Amino acid sequence: MTENGAGGRSAIGPHLPGRLVVRLAVAGNLAIGGVYVVLLAVLYVTGRTRGADFTAFYTGWRIVLEGHGSQLYDPAVQAEVQRTILGGQTFAAGLNAFLNPPHMVLPYLPLGLLPLDVAFLVWTALQAVLLVGVLAALLRGVARDWTRLERAGLAAAFVAFPPLAVSFFEGSFALVLVAGVAGAWWALERGHDTRAGGLLALASIKPQGAFGLVIATLLSRRPAAIVALVAWGVGLGGAATVVLGPGIWNSYLSLLGSQTSAFDRYSLDPTVMWNLRGTLALLAGRDNAPLVNAIAYAAFAVGVVAIAWVWRGGWPPPGDPRHAVGDTALRVALTIVLTLLLSPHLNPHDDTLAAVAVALAYGAMRGTTWGRIIGVGAMLAPVAILVVNGIAADAPTGLPIRLPTLLLALLTLVVVLALCRGAGRTTR
Asked: Which domain holds residue 276?
């Protein structure tokens, strides 16, 4: 069925009560998004955003701007600079560590020239721009043939998604990751391979969320995308090496290794992660950290192999008779959820990327029973996560698994089944 004024099949159904429920869900999710805006304003006015992850990023930028770039990943230097920035105050763990990769330090240094609170405000505005851009890309790309009500449901569920709110509250780079991954997907679908490579380089500020689509691109058999990705990586990495010194990479890997293998060190606690490692940490506890880490890294290795297997046939270019649009969308969705579930290090706000996977999976299976289930689940997920899991990045829980992790696992299962059955093999 087609809703008046919009093309495509309706996944909502012809009955008025069903549409009324959807409209109520849309209104409710938009209201939740409005509450997030108010909460962010309260956090900012009361100075509580100084305790957010943005302060860690700002600390790194200040170290470089003060001429100590070669010591960027020295925890002692970071702690001293951070204490100065906060006027003598410190985080409960003594330090909220700067862990962004060296090649993604220089582009953000201008924010370090501003006072901390002003820089947070500017970054919040830039995040809002990124959010609008991501929504526009999804509506033009994934949802261009959907009904108006479905498109409204997508936008409302996205703005109500708790990880997105956490991203704004923390001043994180999750939306940079989302914009890079979603933009790269859309560029590859339209044959803009060079742009896709550049967007993935942008997303690499969060390697833990970008590695899946990077693997897909490297196996895409699309030379222009691969060359662009490598060129941007080499260019940014070379600039970082010149400015920060050749030893910066060893320092980064050393600190990253100690952080990802530790439990609750420098404000990083694996039990708050919404993925496999977080679940293992909840179940086994900090006394079994070596076992948790061993299983998590083994699963990560399996995930890398699985993603490579998914893309073993490459990414067909537009117009190729082998190109199955729904199949490609499902493979991208599976790549994203495997990345999130199996990453050894994942912040709750990084799960904002899951919204892209949901949109792609729903679009590929739209009109089917599983498509309807995904659509309903997407509209109900924000409220369910808020009730069960809370809004804070480090919200405590007595459950053995956090709800977002369970939802990701279920989405993985549905997408795998759809790919096996060819449910997404539609063509234009």
From this structure: 16-421
